[in-house]
Amino acid sequence: MFLCVIFTQIGLFSRNKNLYWAQVLNCLLPTTYASAQMETAVIPGLSRSNEGRKADEPCTIVIFGASGDLTVRKLIPALFHLYKDGQMPEPFRVVGFARRDKTDASWREEMKAGIERFSRSPEVDSAQWEAFSKNLFYHRGDLTDAEAYASLRTRLADFDNEQLANNLIFYLAISPSLFGDVVDHLHEVKLLHRWEEGDQFWQRVVVEKPFGHDLQSARELNARLVKHARERQILRIDHYLGKETVQNIMMFRFSNAIFEQLWHREAIEHVQITVSEDIGVGSRGGYFEEAGTMRDMMQNHLLQILSLVAMEPPPSLAAEDIRNEKVKVLKSIRPMTPEAVAQQVVRGQYFAGTVNGENRTGYRQEEKVNPESNVETYAALKLFIDNWRWSGVPFYLRTGKNLPLRASEVRVQFRPTPSVLFAAQGNLDLDRNALTLRLQPDEGISLRFNGKVPGTTIATRPVRMHFGYDAEFGAYTPEAYERLLLEAMAGDATLFIRRDEVETAWQFIDAIRAGWGDEVLSNREFYAAGTWGPEAAEDLLAQDGHVWHNPQPAK
Ligand SMILES: NC(=O)c1ccc[n+]([C@@H]2O[C@H](COP(=O)([O-])OP(=O)(O)OC[C@H]3O[C@@H](n4cnc5c(N)ncnc54)[C@H](OP(=O)(O)O)[C@@H]3O)[C@@H](O)[C@H]2O)c1
Q1: Which CATH number fits domain 241-479+489-542: 3.40.50.1000, 3.90.180.10, 3.40.109.10, 3.30.360.10?
Q2: Which of 126, 142, 201, 521 could form a disulfide with 166 if both were Cys (CB 3.0 to 4.6 A apart)?
Q3: Quick check: pTM over 0.85?
């Protein structure tokens, strides 16, 4: 029962940190007394909440790449949801910038069709759409043409509102090779200013992933961006950080004494982080040949999850305090020597197979992929965090494409109990306690422990205590981009990646890639689509006496 109360509390990471803590404190007393009755009930006033966070300074969001996939699938649906939830500032404008020939009206129509096709709530209320869409404008121009930025400036000035013309978010939903040029041009036409204390207006630049393709390119890009903007004005996206369940990792740890007290090397045997995809590279073969899983997934999403799982409590919930702690984790990862890469890192590549009854072609047969490619579509590794808390605890990370199902989860496996009691009874095979944080889909948290099988023997078997977000708070899955856009407008950088964070992550990944060199994939590194990865990945854990725990299908 007590655990259920705890689980009730951990999902309450509202959009406003102060409100969140106020809610936690307000509710601790009644929930403790009422615990016996409220195992799965939704607490009145504490179901999923959209309240508490609102971007209140009028601003304009300029989306570079307005005719692209990200804009229609994610950005505009997210902005529309924020609008419906009353979280957009009043007034606001969205200006889409791209080369294709469109009018305001035709772009609005395309965006509406996009919401109907891709949004989490595809029914569009016409009155709401009418009110929202009159704030959308299309600006045709080439990103390499200085004139297009001058006319953008005029267009913003035409809004006839100082805040709309000067409080600006530049969202770079374009190829990373263009990021630097766009920022230079924006600076030249005086749309982007380095922020100074006391400035009346602000500008922020939101940068999509991938942020560089190695340490060197990330450094160059950073150097270019900070020429015209302060670090606090640059918001580097890792959309995983916008996910409610990823944010909840920190809340879970630091708002629950019973877990935080066990969160260290004395109690934890190892940690597994799995991010599995059930699709192949599809039409992104050209991009993937340049990237590979280590850069595309491990450098950002998995290392971000790792840093939240392993960080120390920050002195406050301020963005810099949280990011300082995350960077410390990344800096404490034991560097990978070439020998360590050989022993602790596994690559994989899928060949033809079946996922969910569907035939899948092999990676080398995909469109725009070299038929002899050695690019990895799967990566698994073991790393150590050399600090006081985690010394000696292995962290196993794995991610891959064309695996049996789509899931992201963290599994914390606790150390075994001394087996003295049960050894005498011959019941040696006690299951180890494990806590699983399911990040997506079927979001929730489960605790696995042993229970006595009813009867006259002392037999035990593992049982599970589970908290499910949907059961507890009602179905509500805000898109990560909603949260990220809201934070960008509100000027809170907590959920964005800082310069030193991105560079430290690249340093770690570069060492692994250097260790691989030009070596070709071995037979044990191929896996059939629809399986949990190559045999070499099983070996990686077997050498420590562990096994991977595969995510289970959503119920
Ligand atoms: N799609 C996703 O789900 C996703 C997810 C994560 C990250 N990202 C990142 O987001 C960025 C955009 O991805 P995307 O999938 O939306 O790409 P996309 O569909 O190829 O769109 C690219 C956009 O850039 C515009 N563009 C390209 N060159 C231009 C130029 N010279 N002048 C003006 N506009 C130009 C294109 O507009 P015109 O052709 O009309 O000029 C188009 O609107 C990339 O960095 C990608 O890695 C995307």
Answers
A1: 3.30.360.10
A2: 201
A3: yes
